[in-house]
Amino acid sequence: MTTPAPDTIIVGAGAAGLTLAARLAEAGEQVLVLEVGPQRSVKDMISSQIWARQLKWSGPPVEESGTHPVGHAFNAGAGTGGSAAHHYGVWLRLHPGDFSVASDHGKSLDWPISYRDVQPYYDRVQEQVGISGDSEAEIWRPPGSPYPMPPLPVFSQARVLARGFAATGRRTAPLPLAINSVPRHGRAACQYDGWCDAGCPIGALANPLVTSLPRALAAGVTIMHEAQALRILRDPNKPNRVTGVEYHHQGVPRQLMAQRVIVAAFTVQSTRLLLNSASEDRPAPGNQHDQLGRYLTTHPAGTVFGLFEQETLPHQGVSGGQLLCHDDYKDKASPGGFGSSQWMIANAIKPNDLLGYGTSRADISGKQLRPWLMKAARHLANMTLVTEDLSLPDNRITLSDSRDPAGMPLAHTHHDIADVSAQRWQQRIDEGLDIFRAAGATDVWHGPRVAMHIMGGTVMGRDDTLSVTDSFGRVHDTDNLYVSGPSLFPSSGAVNPTFTLTALAERQADHMLGLALAAAATPSPGDDPTL
Amino acid sequence: MPAGPNRREVLAAGGAALGWFLIGGSRVWATPADAASAGFSPQVLGKEQVQALASIGEALVPGATQAGLAAFVDNQLEAGSESKLMAKYVGVPVEQQTDFYRLSLDAVGLALQKNTADEVLAAMAADAVPGWNGPPASYVMFLLRADALDVVYGTQAGFAQLGIPYSAHILPEANW
Question: Is residue A26 part of a domain?
């Protein structure tokens, strides 16, 4: 059977890929999406932390090294919806200062665009998808339209922890979430049962299965599942153009031609695909200057736990948390390390799984365990720290000497954490323990430093000798090859990336369709350009 | 492998079925707990490895034996790329899970020949098991404890034991 040549091939059916698929198809293009994982629907989102693991990455393994490995198997996903199928819906904007870290501090990288370039796309996506929050209470929030839905309710765990923040002179606000607090656009409101990690079958959480996927399918997008892209096909006569994709499907290598190719396979696999597209006489696309794969970043993160006398009922709420603190976000160069940080406060939590409270105390077992778990089930609180990573050239995705069953080299990621980033993480964790004590915790502890989110590798930039793509994700040395997703981020900031990558995909779509870019409204007198 | 019952049949039976286990020479659709109590025949692990897993799992998380920890782990290892063991996302790729568990449980079994389960756990926590020949002992202990937590407390019955509502949006077809 021959598949007709589409206008655009998109590799990856995650948040970025499906956003672009919907936009391009709605404008009349024929779009085909290659997805390495299985087909999924919301009916597969079974409420179980064990079943939730089916949403995680199940493709070829990724080799990891370094002092702070990126945790690909935990952070990545496969199947319709990609990693966003299991994301928690914490949709925060990068701050203006996140776009100019190199200029402001002599560290990391600058973005080729500013907050004001992305702001109208944040606003557009926010209206389309829906975010619940309180834009006035969120005093650190960069300029933008108010949230279209009221915040999610605050339960007892968050009320207990808010006392600790207040007692230590810190401020909190409702956590902005791409989760419906009220029914909206045909999607139900949240039930606050904390099963976000297993996917949200009721459609309250904005994973792509209930946002961009229905739009894409309605516009005629074809999605080919369990199809592994092997390499980008280069035009032998035009060095600045690609012609299609070679992929592996049903045990057979195949080729498909298109006018445009978009690689949106999440950070590591997107980079792996581009690296594997080199030939003996031509470097990989975007790698003329040996930049492809560099500046791999991940958010150093951690969880603080505590037990309280009063009931916290930590099974209530949503996995992402209930409250936010960005008091320490703006001043990246404050003493104690380097980088922004945030607290996501009062995450709904289960007894088992990697992020569960039972797993958090490996020192408790045997006869002590059940009484401890019974106490924790009603009296435990927790909050999650996210800190900024430095973009370093030697933190890099490369190809391994080992190959997968389709013959494609595996990806290898190397990620070391900078001393100043590790110091900032420890500083904030220590402060988190103090916040818990101030809230009245009778016992406090914290989990290990972990890697949350994966970014970089195909970073955007103005200088084609120091980056892989331009600000639209177009690979520097090619006219019709694009990358989309968090691999474009030149610096990590310290906020969850899905909102930003979706806004960038909207901006890319405007560019590809030849539409005028959206412009931010004229700054109002109250806007603080230094935020 | 024979086709499993459909979702309606499973839920009508109380949502307690898990997978196909070899019991008495026949493939039987059963929970890990029922498979364990019926004397299931492991398909991946050896009998001594199963015994070591049951002994150390019970010492880590009381109730793990009755909940069918060994049957659960063996069944997940048999599932290959479909394995849902937590090891999947803490650095043990599914392709290496079987060797990881076999090596680890052989080492646990040897240690249990000379010491009580509690003594072995204390030594594993400190990575100080004499003669240990396997993946790092504290890491093995962390993962086995997590598996035991899964089968005992990561289920509707486990939540009920802790007095908290499960409140599923979609009930698991298995008992987890």
Answer: yes
